[in-house]
Amino acid sequence: MSRVVLKNLSKSFGEVNVVNDISLEIIDHEFLSFLGPSGCGKTTTLRMIAGFDMPTAGEIFIGDRLVSSAEKKVFVPPEDRNVGMVFQNYAVWPHMDVFKNVAYPLKISKVKSADIRDRVMRVLSLVKLKGMESRYPHQLSGGQQQRVALARALIMEPDVMLLDEPLSNLDAKLREEMRFEIKDIQRRIGVTIIYVTHDQAEAMAMSDRILLLHEATVQQLGTPRELYERPENQFAADFIGLINFLRIELISKGDGLCARFLDADDDTPFDINYSPEQLSAGMQRVFAVRPENVKLVSPREGHVTGKVRKKVYLGNILDYRIVLGKEEIRVEAPSTAKYDIDQVVGLKFTDYVIFE
Amino acid sequence: MYHKRFRADPLILGSTFVIIGVLIVFPFTLLFINSLKADGVFTFQNYVTVFQANRNYTALFNSLKLGFFTSLFSVLLGAPLAWLVTRTNLPFAKLFKTLFILPYMIPPFVGAIAWSQLLNRRNGYINSWAASLFGLEGHVFDVNTMPGLIWVMTLYLYPFVFITVAGALERMDPTLEEAARTCGAKTMRIMRDITLPLVAPSIAGGALLVFASTIANFGIPALIGMQGRVYVLTTMIYSYMRRGLTGIAMASALSILLMSISVGALLLNNLYLKKKQYTLISGKSMRPTKLDLRRWKIPILILAFLVVFVTVIMPFVSISLTSFLDAWGAKITWDNLTLKNYRYILFEYALTKDAFKNSFLLAISAATVCMVLGSLIAYISVKTKIRGRKALEAVSQLPYAVPGTVVAIAMILAWSGKYGINLYNTFWIILLAYIARYVAFAVRTTSASLEQIHPSLEEAARISGGSWLTSLKDIVVPLIRPGLVAGWFLIFMPTLRELTMSILLWGPKTVTIGVAIFEMQEAGYVQISSAFATILLVIVIVGNLFVKWLTKGKAGI
Ligand SMILES: Nc1ncnc2c1ncn2[C@@H]1O[C@H](COP(=O)(O)OP(=O)(O)OP(=O)(O)O)[C@@H](O)[C@H]1O
Ligand SMILES: [Mg+2]
Q: Domain ABC transporter, which positions (chain A) (predicted)?
């Protein structure tokens, strides 16, 4: 059983709240990412799970064991948590060669040296470092050092692996490769992974679920698809992918609602698929729509009209900028679309979200 | 359009090379040649004679022994203290960090005086106290022995190890230790497997520095060792020179020997260990998790305080108490306390008044000349492409790397009339020695600040029509002025209390503070030398605080 449960976890350094009331259950064999801008508390949360920082409030369970509790004064030290960790800067020991680095956890737990050799070799081949056993860290590339750190965490056969931006120092190509390898390893040995990153593409590509953090608080928890398609607030919508924000006012129309743009020249109301239970007439809201969810049509067919200001050919798509009065909206159209600069077009929204 | 203009730079820059040649290269070459010359012919005779004399052999052996054990005990004392201050929740850690460095501020000969007052066989404070406490006859400790030397030397030099190890522990990436914890290792195991191996090069580096400084030290073996007939190389050279210039051949040969050992130790540190220290330790400054001492907190705090008490408070109290004593060796009672020692050295005794005047004059002149010369060398090395600039800088560093005793011998060889100029027994030979030895400081402080000036600033001044001199005066000097001022004080302070070179160079009219204290102590005027030493200590402490304030805590000893 290797789930991880955080209950109302908080951490402050002096007056500053660095982690604010996080509750979360990471299930067995899950790959969960902590995603958020720099300084939002990702590392601090990870360090609390590993046992390097004590929570100010709340509890942490690993498996069924309570490992940290501010209220009950429980604290299991890091060495007794059986949690593997890969540090952002690898933390590979410079005075030990690759073999010694990877073998260290086994030496600590007093495994027989014949077995150590076997297991180290197995793990090294898993991370594709076979033949490098006797090299020292300064003779390794950044990517190789990172794999040493990974191997050192894997060999403990931990219940949970914590990875703190392990790929941030690698070049794009190696990063791609390592993403794949980490994912692959996880699939083979079935370990629960908590992965910290501030790179949304990385989180989207690897995670089963993503915990989006901002200013010490949880913004959203969900699958990559949920985060992209159903962002719960403006921050989430903005942080992941491209999105247009437009101010709208809600108007009642019969039993339902419709909306009109506040800053557009064309303020014809258009129907929205929100029920009056969620919203009511007279409210001012933010209408968020991703560029690929706007279709360019003839002026009469669209929800609103605008004027083409700019278009850029990007191969697979055309990137349009359409002026709607004071505001401008970004639209991705198939490269077959043929609208010219200054042409008046209709905009049809196929999917969108409305925020406060 | 180019105008032909009088160019000052070749003249000034060129003469810098000449000055360094005369000041440093000439005397050291002579030293080398002289050690190979006997009765006018080249021979290894001097070295053979050196080793024929049993006492030289003993002196060499004693130097090595003293160096080895001082380094060893400095590591045993300095490294754990460094760990306590940087890696545990010891209370007042910041204060202790300053206090543990303090012994190095006490001039070594002052420390030696204090410890001979505390531990001498006849009436050392601690011996008398122990005798009265346990009703013993005779003495418990005798400082005038090899162990006594090691003790005093260790207390003076262990801060080297403390500083290097504390620095390494602070710079060490804490995740290296945390990674070991996630692997299941407990604190003690991590210390053994990770922390200790990682700081080992720094420990070795600090130990080598201690070794080199021990070998080069004169004040402590002179005041503590000679009385007990324990001679080391520096004191052996001194005793040869006491016979006047006749001993100089032997002194030169011993000097070369002394120089090789201490330079060897420093080179080993610079070439081998420094490199290791850099590759092992990252520059990141992250806060490591500090070990909770729990129930050991109070005992260790007491222990730390005890270290401060023994290394700083006891010597200081001993010296200042003695300086108020009416008669040395008498019981310490109110009736026995007096200010007459101070009155005597400050107003009555001509020798001490001379010493103050000479030392201040020497320190001010040396610091000023060093700064001018040092800035020129730094300028040539950092800002020009003149051939030989790196050699110039390296040569300027040499006299500080070798023991002061060796520098003094080289100066005597060069300036005692054999080559047309006789400065022996004058103010000038002492000044030359001070300048030669301390110009290294000036070069280092100024080149550090010069490196931060972008060449474009200076070029801009020259493009707008300024000559080399105006650009120097208007642009460069103002920008490095803070560095210059700090550098000046960093030379002024140690030259004011200099003993090692002065003791070999002084004449009837050129007694310095260090020499005066030394001679009075040797002559048995214990209270007077203590009063003088107390005044010196106050000057040193005030001066250091001033330099710290001036450089915002970046410099100072
Ligand atoms: N020991 C500490 N004392 C005081 N403040 C701290 C400490 N450690 C972290 N912080 C603060 O807590 C906040 C969160 O830090 P944390 O390292 O968790 O951020 P992060 O999300 O990992 O950022 P990054 O992506 O830059 O690594 C930061 O504002 C940081 O300054
Ligand atoms: Mg971080």
A: 4-240
Name the residue in chain B with its Cα closest to that of A101: B180
For chain B, what is the radius of gyration of the CA atoms? 25
Provide the β-strand partners of residue A192: A160
Counting atoms of ligand 1 from 1, which one is nearest the CA of A53? 1
Q: Which of A333-337, B81-85, B472-476, B544-548: highest mean pLDDT?
A: B81-85
The verdict on domain A4-239 having CATH code 3.40.50.300 is yes
Q: What percent of chain B has pLDDT over 70?
A: 93
Which one, of B71, B152, B150, B141, lies nearest residue B112 by Cα? Answer: B152
- What is the structure's pLDDT at B286? 58
Are B193 and A85 an interchain contact pair (Cβ–Cβ within 8 Å)?
no
Domain boundaries for CATH 3.40.50.300 within chain A: 4-239
Helix axes B314-323, B108-119, angle to 10 degrees: 80
ipTM above 0.95, yes or no: no
For residues A94-133, b (16+ Cβ closer than 10 Å) or e, as one string?
bbbbbbbbbbbbbbbeebeeeebeebbeebbebbebeebb
The whole-angstrom separation of Cα B221 and Cα B275 is: 33
In angstroms, the separation between the Cα of residue B201 and the nearest Cα of chain A is 11
Q: Is A213 on the interface with B (CB under 8 A)?
A: no
Task: Please report the domains of chain B, with CATH numbers, ordered by start residue.
Answer: 1-30+349-511 (1.10.3720.10), 47-308 (1.10.3720.10)
Listed in order, the ranges of chain A carrying CATH 2.40.50.140 are 244-355
Rounded Cα distance between B87 and B293, Å, is 10
Residues whose Cβ atom is located within 5 A of ion ligand 2:
A 43
Considering only A91-100, A185-194, A220-229, B188-197, which range has the smallest mean pLDDT? A185-194
Among chain A residues, CA nearest to B179 = A91
Q: Is the pLDDT of residue B468 over 80?
A: no
Tokens read off for B388 = 């030989």
Residue owning the nearest CA to atom 18 of ligand 1: A41
Q: Considering the entire predicted model, what is its pTM?
A: 0.83
**What atom of ligand 1 comes closest to residue A41's alpha carbon?**
18
What pLDDT digit, counting tens, does each position of B299-343 carry? 999 999 999 999 999 999 999 999 998 877 667 777 778 888 899
Q: Touching check for A84 and chain B: CB below 8 Å?
A: yes
Pairwise CB contact (< 8 Å): B178 & A156:
no
| CATH T-level fold of A244-355 | OB fold (Dihydrolipoamide Acetyltransferase, E2P) (2.40.50)
Measured between alpha carbons, how far is A192 from A158 in angstroms, rounded to an integer?
9
Whether A91 and B279 lie within 8 Å, measured CB to CB: no
Nearest to A109 among B180, B181, B184 (CB): B184
How big is the CA angle at A102 (ends A98 and A103), to the nearest 5 degrees?
115
- Our CA angle for B365, B367, B369, nearest 5°, is 65
pLDDT digits (tens, 9 = 90+) for A131-181: 999 999 988 888 888 889 989 998 988 889 999 988 877 778 878 888 888
Mean pLDDT computed over A16-26: 93
Pocket of ligand 1 (CB under 6 A): A 13, 18, 36, 38-44, 198; B 287
> With contacts defined as CB-CB under 8 Å, which chain A residues touch B197?
95
